[in-house]
Design brief:
By secondary structure, the protein is α+β, with helices and mostly antiparallel strands. The chain folds into two domains: 13-236, no CATH class; 238-393, Trna Endonuclease, Chain: A, domain 1 (3-Layer(aba) Sandwich). It is built from 13 helices and eleven strands. The strands form two sheets. A six-stranded antiparallel beta sheet has the order 1-2-3-4-6-5. It has a five-stranded mixed beta sheet with strand order 7-8-9-10-11. A hairpin with a 5-residue loop joins strand 3 (117-123) and strand 4 (129-134). The protein starts with 12 loop residues before the first helix and ends in a 16-residue tail after the last helix. Mean pLDDT is 81; it is low at 1-8, 256-261 and 395-409.
Amino acid sequence: MTTESVPTSVWSAQDVAELTGMLAARRSRLWQLTQPADLAAWVYADPQPAPLNPPPAVFDGDWADGLDERQRAAWALAGWVARMAVPEAAPTVGTHWLLSRLQNGHAPLLRLTVGVLETLGVYESGEEVWLRVAAAPIGLAMDAGAADLEEWGRRGIDVAEDRTKTLAEEKLLLTCPDIDTARWLLRQPPVLAAARMLNAWVAAGPFPFESRYRPEVAGRAWLAAEHLAAGAASVAACGNRGFDREYAGSAAPVELPAQRSFDADAYRAGVTEHDRLCRALIDHLDAEGVRAGAGLHDVLVDLAWRDADGRQFVAEVKSVVGDNEAEQLRLGLGQVLEYRHRLTARGVVATPVLVVSRYTDTAWSDICAENQVVLLQGEDAADWAASLRSAAWGSDRADGDVSLGRDRT
């Protein structure tokens, strides 16, 4: 490990020096691999994952075999945190940290243990992620205005003092309601610095869990994290736009083939209405300072965009003309769910949106909500902003305490 540059926006050289002194006071086998000053600089540096090769363990087979979408996302997140937030991750696996998979209540739990402390838990069901971090970087970021706890609260993130007996220094327990929220949280530099600080500290101590190490779990998660990194790289390749190309609109041919068995006037009206809805949504987003375009990573979505927080949205737009409401809503829901599936397979997490001219059957709002699809209708354009914000913040989740189902060491 080599000393890395330290961003000056939040952290200072004094912060690094103080952490160097703290780490230097601990004696451990870890110092065979690195020096306290290098490790302190790594904690505060711009984050980079540990390289794919060499892996900590060989996994023979496709890491995603037998996993559904939520399980793949859980394994990817667990491996990503290990590769991003554990010092010298590859050579220290099995001697300073491990990933384990255990049955915890109603769903399997992927758990990262560093030193003597469990620092991450990800349920394979995708319904909860918890993370133990050092409190100091979060406090520094709050003082600098680089951490917005109100925004965390809007996203359903619980912040509590961690009262595990391990390590006397102040720790926080961050609980996210789902994997998507956890990925957003871990993109915040203060959070990753806080996770790195705690892991660097406990990795320098004893590790009594060698007998629990399973190389195949570490190897599978290590490869899964590359899948997540590839998705992030794909998003970066599109810049901050969140779409492949500008929306160009569409038009019905002037002359339709004679063998058309449907109403040509209705067909033209539908194409015109589709274009009107697309442009209405583009104009709405533009007023919010967000650009939208068409297509995403070769998936032919009608519209795609990223909001101010970097969250990806994709939309299927359906014109409702005459008595084709049920047909269009069924078709549109199926299409946008397909888009989400295909993008997830590419490592891209996207919130699906179905935009229709109108709907009279109120069951469709429940059907879409059950499938985590945002339903917008052209007649209620004034409500679009609130609906999209609700999706981004996860405000439809139930408030209250969450049963963490984790051990207390």
